[in-house]
Amino acid sequence: MSETQFEHLFSPLQVGPMRVPNRICETTNTINSSMIPGEIDENFIAHHGAKAWGGTGWIGSETWLLNVPFPPETPDEIGLSVGFASHFGTYQSPEFIKGWAKFCDEIHQAGSVAVVQLTHLSAVWAPSSVPVVGAQDYTPHVLGDEEIEFCINTYADAAAVAKDVGADAVEIHCAHETLAYSFLSPATNYRTDQWGGGPRERIRFVVEVLKRVRESIGDSLALGIRITGEEYRHGGAEHLEMREMAYYISETGLIDFLDVDVGHCWGAPSYVPSSYYENAAFKEVGKAARADLDSKIAVMFSGRINDPGLAEGLIKDGYCDLVGMTRAGIADSEFANKAREGRLLEIRRCISCTRCIDEASEPMTFPYTPTCSINPVLGNELRWKEQYRPADEPKRVVVVGGGLAGCEASRVAAMRGHQVTLLEQGDRLGGQLLIAVKAPGRDDFEDQVYFEENEMSRLGVDVQLKTNADVDAINALSPDAVVIATGSLPRLPREIPGIDLPNVVQGWDVMQGKASTGDRVAVISQEDYYETPCVAEFLAERGKQVEVFHKSVHLGSEIARYSIGMVLSRMEQCGVKVHPNLILTEIQADGLEFVSSFGGKTYREVGFDSVVLVYGSVPQHDLYDQLKAEGSVSQLYLAGSAWLPRFMAEATQHGASIGLVI
Ligand SMILES: Cc1cc2nc3c(=O)[nH]c(=O)nc-3n(C[C@H](O)[C@H](O)[C@H](O)COP(=O)(O)O)c2cc1C
User: Which residue of 12, 185, 266, 421 is surrounded by the most CB atoms within 10 Å?
Assistant: First the structure.
């Protein structure tokens, strides 16, 4: 292996009987990369395999949901697989076993280890009748002794299958919203029998599972647990108590590794921390586990670690032995090889927008494709393998607009050998990303701007900034293909009386410093994602008194459960008051008129100095229309928000897909 500046990160580690080639780990992430529910298809192998070929040493892939004592035809709602249907109860099916054997082979060929995580979810059955997941309202079925025994055996049976298919290790999932977690947590385990009590008693379920699994797999596989270092949940286990339980479990001698993270699936923080948290913000839980446990037990820590330098430091400074870098690999499956080879500027760093988990945690229909805001290949690995090829003959390509769509079209076209000119009217690439980075807690979004800037120069794209492209300017470049990625502009609801008053401004303009507000601000929200919370927080951070009038049930209703807790907690912390279900009907000099979204009742609010609008945005495609009418360009494309304003992932994919076919 070549020399590397990250010697700790790229040194091998013996974990029980398993030799891990380096310290970079894909912790289990059920991103649903298989297009066939309950089977491991070629997409799954290509997706997780790409990380192994990209240099990640430990591949945790996707969890095995264990079976429950119901007939196979039982609907999900009853069958406990709520929200997580893809691999439910299938580990005994021949297709599943065949698929996993093939997958483990692929991982081994790439030189990595395959780790199987075993999970019982707990949403609808649990040790006590306390809802386990705040986002779901089930009062769970309380497990009886026979059911507990059944569950313990399923771990052992599944572990035997994991051994048969060639896995190198088994991880019992005891964190997050799992059944094992709900035995460990004082917030969900109120039992007074042998399964409940203090920390020593609440670990019993986990220890019984470990014993049974060890019997089933023997010593040839490594065995470990995933545990929550601190729940951050009202009534949940604090860090010291979690340390105590982890120590008691380790004392049994049954585990080779402990994989620790922080947070709750609905919490602030959640265990998939967003950009609002610092990188490795909770690393002390790793350090504590490393200090507490016998050195023979490897400690893994994860939580927003997206940079090889940071990961190297965590190992060197004794925070952990293995580093979970899951979304780092989602954003760039080759980041480990790039890090080892010192190609640091080529790494597309995860920006922790949580798009991957937000999509994957919602009920889904198949075929489903995972998405990443910045990596267009994610979930489409097979398609890229089939379709990506150097251009037959290099073309002269002009791209107008340097937002995500324009950059990705340019990047992919240039990678394929085309000669690309990118015209951008602003003084920097990035488009709407440059607005997003101004929001508190979104600084890391700038990493993607740096990535694109670097890629443009690495690939020889001729970037012309401060350039207003028009039809003549484009024709003067004699292009064979033109991509119009001119983005969108904020929507102005002209139908609302008073919209032209001088104290009415656009949220984007406020964030870019093009408009200012008075002290008391009404933010009028017609969007359900991050834009309104970002604008509100931006204003509150500058000392404004902010009230949001939002059209639907709650702010950020498109933000899924792993992230919404953080967004709402930040609104609370910065004193933003939110009024849901209101639609603005008129702006007057001395007040605002609203109608209730559902009931039709009207309301009047007074006392605001400024009104800030967040009404979504309107595509800007005049240039495309003109070029089309003129007919001089044979290959003409409209990309990203200029076609339809959606989210980052859509702009990225749209641009990259065009780059792929030019
Ligand atoms: C799409 C997705 C699915 C996940 N599914 C699981 C899972 O099934 N089991 C699990 O233990 N953790 C799961 N996680 C959490 C990750 O293992 C990891 O702890 C988390 O992403 C934080 O690490 P990172 O910042 O390196 O991404 C999932 C994360 C993502 C992004």
Answer: 185
**CA angle, residues 357, 361, 364, in degrees to nearest 5:** 120
At 259 the three-state DSSP class reads strand
**Contact by Cβ (8 Å): 126, 143:** yes
Whether omega for the bond prior to residue 71 falls within 30 degrees of 0, making it cis, is: no
Distance 61 CA to ligand 1 centre (A): 10
**Collapsing DSSP states into helix, strand and coil, what is residue 466?**
coil
Rounded (5°) CA angle 212-213-218:
110
Token pair belonging to 530: 């991050």
- Contacts of 656 by beta carbon, 8 Å cutoff, 6+ apart: 376, 377, 408, 409, 411, 412
- Per the CB < 8 A criterion, the answer to whether 568 and 561 are in contact is no
Say how many residues make up the chain. Answer: 662
Assign 588 to helix, strand or coil: strand
Task: Note the helical H segments in 124-238.
Answer: 145-165, 179-184, 199-202, 204-217
In angstroms, the CA 301 to CA 282 distance is 9
Which position has the token pair 């251009």? 391
Cβ atoms of residues 330 and 60 within 8 Å: no
d(CA 369, CA 43): 9
pLDDT value, residue 76: 60
DSSP 450: H
Angstrom distances, CA of residue 70 to CA of 66, 74, 484: 12, 6, 54
The H or E element spanning position 173 is strand 169-173
Strands of 414-519, DSSP E: 419-423, 462-464, 481-484, 488-490, 504-506
> Could you give the domains of the chain?
13-382 (3.20.20.70), 388-489+619-661 (3.40.50.720), 492-615 (3.50.50.60)
Contacts of 146 (CB under 8 A, 6+ apart): none
From 24, 25, 26, 27, the mutation candidate for ligand 1 (largest count of ligand atoms within 8 A of CB) is 27
Residue 505's SS3 state is: strand
Which residues line ligand 1 at a C-beta cut-off of 6 Å? 27-31, 63, 117, 173, 176, 226, 261, 271-272, 302-305, 324-328, 356-357, 360
Structure tokens at 640: 């990203």
pLDDT for res 560: 85
* Distance between Cα 32 and ligand 1 center (Å): 12
**Residue 226 one-letter amino acid:** R
Which residues of the chain are under the pLDDT cut of 50? 1, 80-88
Q: What distance in angstroms lies between residue 303's CA and the mean position of ligand 1's atoms?
A: 9
**Tokens 């940071």 belong to which residue?**
310
CB-CB contact of 536 with 523 (8 Å): yes
Q: Write down the pLDDT at residue 267.
A: 74
pLDDT of residue 36: 82
What is the widest separation between alpha-carbon atoms in the chain?
A: 82
Spatial separation of the C-alpha atoms in residues 340 and 22, rounded to whole Å = 10
Burial class (CB in 10 A: 0-12, 13-18, 19+), 253: exposed
- The residue among 291, 274, 282, 213 whose CA lies nearest residue 564 is 274
Q: Pairing state of beta strands 169-173 and 125-126? A: unpaired
Q: List Cα–Cα distances, 100 to 155, 165, 544, in angstroms.
A: 17, 6, 55
Query: With the C-alpha atoms ordered 353, 356, 361, 363, is the resulting torsion angle positive or negative?
Result: positive
Q: What is the DSSP-derived secondary structure letter of residue 88? A: B
How far apart are the CA of 584 and the centre of ligand 1, in A? 40
Rg (CA), the chain: 26
Using CA atoms, how far residue 482 sits from 401, 413, 462, in Å, is 11, 11, 14
